[in-house]
Amino acid sequence: MNASLEHSTATMVTTMFDQAECRDPEHLRRWIVLVDGANHQLDCLTQEAARRGVSIDIIVDFVHVLEYLWKPRTTSTPPSPTAPPSSSKPPATCSKATPPA
Question: How far is CA 59 from its chain centroid?
Answer without folding.
Answer: 11
